[in-house]
Amino acid sequence: MLGVPLLVTALLAGACGDGGANDGGAAGTTSPPAPASTTATPSASASASSGGRVTIPTSAFADLPPELRKTDAQQMEVTDALPGLCDQEFRSGGRSVTASAAMMSAYKQPKDPPENVPYGTLHQTVFAFEGTGAADYLRRVGGAVADCRSFRAPGGTVTVRSEPMAGTGDEALLVTVSRPATSLDGSPAEGRTTSQILVIRVADAVTVVHDQGWEGTSNDPGLADDVARSAVRGLDSWQR
User: Which of 9, 57, 183, 199 is deepest in the core (most CB within 10 A)?
Assistant: First the structure.
């Protein structure tokens, strides 16, 4: 499992509501974020309907099997981890979020030799919600992604396709993004590359996992189920 036992603790304080367009720690909440409790705190958001502390342990994050794990996970900012498509579809709004945190890791193919570069990276965010916030978030994200079928980006048109993931957590969404390929220096290349975004709810928590190929290459869609299972196991260990 990951090395840091407790990733983020948020003190619940202030007055908040539901919805919105910002992530759990960004401006746009009606009160400033509460101070975090330890040095191992990349991002935290405050919300306020009950007293006490909400802690997101590192065990709540996906722990890939050894044959897929290239690097250990490292903390990162939630705002950097969340993907963006037509707009800021995956930000939480912060108003019903009691805590949020993000980690990044690299993965490999099972038969890759040790000297190979990673096959891809996972940027994973975990949100803890209160009330109906988790289900509301899934519903809002699903509608926003459905409305974002394509958009213009440097190099050409990006297409977006979303579909439910049956039997994954309490509910889940798989988003596949296809964009024009680029070289390492950013210049146009032949073909297209794909990445995937998994949005999974388990009880009052939601995780957003952005799966991207290494340095602008395509991810491996065949690993989506493995990533989803690992993400669900992490949330289950914390929420059940």
Answer: 199
